[in-house]
Amino acid sequence: MSHLISVQLDALAGLLEELTVLGRQLGGEAELSSSTGRSLETALSGAVGVAAGEAGAEWSAVLTALAARTLAVAATLEQALAAYRAADAGIAERIGAGPRGRAAVAR
Question: How many other C-beta atoms can be found within 10 angstroms of the C-beta atom of residue 62?
């Protein structure tokens, strides 16, 4: 049994943009965490410095993974949005001009 799926393309595009920005920001935060960890390891002596460096490196790894997965979801969403827009344009083309002579417009 097939079901009707309703997608608001503009809302989907907005979500795609937000996910892309978030993924890039997370990547930047990962770099900052790694750099800060190295700086703290250099600035602090002994075991405290080593622990701070390790914490920065581990947090950076977590943020890097999260950024990569966020951008992967965004890429998938981008492909879905393109497919939905193409399908919408195809339907509008098949419908053709309406009763008032205006062509349907894909949104």
Answer: 12
The residue range of the domain holding 47 is 28-90
Give the C-alpha separation, 24 to 106, whole Å: 30
Within-domain flag for 95: no
> For the purposes of burial, counting CB atoms within 10 Å of the CB of 74, is it exposed (0-12), middle (13-18) or buried (19 or more)?
buried
Domain-located, residue 6: no
- Rounded Cα–Cα distance for residues 62 and 56 (Å): 10
pLDDT digits (tens, 9 = 90+) for 52-62: 999 999 999 99
Percent of the chain predicted with pLDDT > 70? 90
Would you say residue 85 lies in a domain?
A: yes
Question: Residue 66 region, left (φ>0) first, then alpha (ψ -120 to 50), else beta?
Answer: alpha
Please state the domain count of the chain: 1
- In a domain, residue 16? The reply is no
pLDDT per residue over 34-48, tens digit each? 999 999 999 999 999
